[in-house]
Each structure stands twice: as structure tokens, then as C-alpha cells.
Design goal:
Elements lengths: L2 H48 L4 H6 L3 E2 L6 E2 L2 H32 L2 H16 L2 H19 L8 H25 L3 H9 L4 H12 L1 H17 L2 H7 L16 H12 L5 H31 L5
Helix pairs in contact: 1-12, 3-6, 3-9, 4-6, 5-6, 5-10, 6-9, 6-10, 7-8, 9-12, 11-12
């Protein structure tokens, strides 16, 4: 008699497990469908754009003048502006984030970590438009005092605030990766006479390189895709320059400019929005592929 209820219970459990599996597969499929939808939209309009603008002129042109009577669609000024801001932000955020993670993981006690980590992560919750106006009203006047000739809109100011913005991403993910390193490795290093700093730099950081590289890629990708802070602080002048104290326009800033209605739908200027978006997408994809190769190539074996 007791076998029948047990059999019914097992059958019900099996049906429930299958339903959960289908639900989870559906949730995972949403991500793939969303990515596929973005690609279809981007590529559809990009193909129409490149039917009117040669691919070589777009990729290697040095003038971005879509609104002129004789329009030019050389994307290099937008790419250089994006890389200039993202590179400057990386110089601020990556070392600061990793050093903060080393302190939180290897030096800070539970009480200090419980106070400092939430304070650090508060930076991630500040709206990006606030960062933009902070750059325009505080950082830029300070830079103009220190470096005469700095423009009102400049890449350096945008780089500094975007760098501060992505510090929590780098620090939090790096600290999680470092804390996942087995304590036995730390004990072995300290037992051999290494200092805490030597243990952190030569044992913990190499062992956590996978998570640290992931934090770098995520942080730089966010810097590349940042919009409002960069639009407000860096300006909208598409210069092909390496001078961080001059005005530049990033790819995201141009997308905002076109999205505000400056170009009629269906025109080549409107379609250039999608060509620029595709370029940004491919740059981010290349960064992720590179990070996967680095992680696979340099991941240590922990036994």
C-alpha cells in the first residue's frame, strides 16, 4: 500500500523537475533571443548604411561630418574619442580597484570591510548624469587651473569621472576573486617567510587572475559604453586627437545626438547610428574574446 503513494510522489517530483528545467531553459533563451534581436536590428540598418557609404571610407576616414552638405562618415574620430576616454578611465580605475581589492581581501578586518565595501559600492549607485555635471562643474575648472588651455569640454575630465565610476566594479569583482583563493596558499606562502604584501602580489593575485581580468573587461566595457557622463563632460566635437585636454565625441555621445531627433528616420545620417552601434558592439565583443583567451592562457592550476 505504501508503494503507490511513494510512486505518485516520485512522479510528481519528476514532473516538477521537468517544469523547472523548462522554465530555466526559457530564462536562458531570453538572453539569446535578446542578443539575436539586437544583432538583427543593428545589422539590418547597417547593411542599408553601407549600401550608400563605402566600408573603407567608414572604417578609415578621418572626418566625421554627417550633417554637412558634403557629409563625411569616417568613424575614426569617434573611435579615438571613445578609446581616449576609456583608456584614461582604465588608468584611473584598474590600479585603484585592484589595490582596493587587495586591501579589502588581505588586510582589512571584518569590521573595516563591512564599512568600507558598502561605501565603495555607493559610487556605483550614483546616477551617471550626476557624474557628468560633477565633471563639468568641479573637475573641469580644477583641470583648467592646473593645465592652462584645457577646454571647457575635454576628454580628461570625462576619463576621471568615468574611472571613478567603474572603480566599484573592478574592486568588488577582484576582491571576490581574491577571497575565493584557498587560505592554504596564503598559509604556505607566509610559512615560507613571505610578507603579507608578497603573498598578496605573488600568490593571491596570480591565483585570482581569472576574476581580475573579468573585472577589467567589465569595467572597460562599461567605460566604452558610458553615455551621459561622457556626453556632458567631453562634448560633441569629433576630433581625431590624442590630446586628453581637448573636446572629443565618443560613439555613445553621437548615438545620443542622433537619437534626439537631429536626423529624419530612414536617412543615411539616421542609419549611421546603427553603423556606429555595430562598431561599438564589435569592439566590446573583441574585448570579451580577448579576455577569455587571456584567462584560458594564464589561469593557474590550484590543487
Amino acid at each position: 500500500m505504501s508503494a503507490r503513494p511513494d510512486l505518485s510522489r516520485r512522479r510528481a517530483t519528476g514532473r516538477g523537475e521537468r517544469l523547472i528545467e523548462v522554465f530555466l531553459a526559457g530564462c536562458a533563451g531570453v538572453t539569446g533571443l535578446a542578443t539575436l534581436g539586437v544583432l538583427v536590428v543593428l545589422l539590418g540598418h547597417s547593411v542599408a548604411f553601407f549600401a550608400e557609404v563605402p566600408l573603407g571610407a567608414f572604417l578609415f576616414g578621418t572626418r566625421w561630418e554627417p550633417m554637412f552638405e558634403d557629409p563625411r562618415f569616417g568613424v575614426l574620430p569617434l573611435v579615438s574619442g571613445s578609446l581616449l576616454v576609456a583608456g584614461g578611465a582604465a588608468l584611473v580605475a584598474l590600479p585603484t580597484g585592484v589595490l582596493s581589492a587587495i586591501f579589502l581581501s588581505e588586510y582589512a578586518g571584518p569590521r573595516a570591510r563591512g564599512v568600507l565595501k558598502p561605501l565603495l559600492e555607493v559610487l556605483a549607485g550614483i546616477p551617471t548624469v550626476v557624474y557628468g555635471y560633477f565633471a563639468l562643474t568641479f573637475v573641469t575648472p580644477l583641470l583648467r587651473t592646473l593645465v592652462p588651455g584645457t577646454g571647457v569640454f575635454n576628454a580628461a575630465s570625462a576619463s576621471l569621472v568615468v574611472g571613478v565610476m567603474i572603480i566599484p566594479t573592478v574592486a568588488s569583482l577582484s576582491e571576490d576573486a581574491m577571497r575565493a583563493v584557498p587560505d592554504s596558499l596564503r598559509a604556505a606562502s607566509l610559512g615560507l617567510g613571505a610578507t603579507r604584501m608578497e603573498t598578496a602580489v605573488r600568490v593571491v593575485v596570480p591565483s585570482a587572475v581569472s576574476g581580475i581580468v573579468a573585472s577589467f573587461v567589465l569595467g572597460v566595457s562599461r567605460a566604452l559604453g558610458e553615455t551621459m557622463a561622457v556626453t556632458i563632460a567631453a562634448g560633441s566635437l569629433p576630433n581625431l586627437t590624442l590630446d586628453p585636454f581637448s573636446s572629443v565625441q565618443t560613439m555613445t555621445a553621437y548615438i545620443v545626438q542622433v537619437s534626439l531627433g537631429e536626423a529624419a528616420q530612414g536617412t543615411v545620417v539616421y542609419r549611421s547610428l546603427f553603423a556606429v552601434g555595430t562598431t561599438l558592439f564589435l569592439m566590446t565583443l573583441a574585448m570579451n574574446l580577448l579576455s577569455q583567451w587571456v584567462v584560458a592562457r594564464f589561469r593557474p592550476e590550484i590543487r
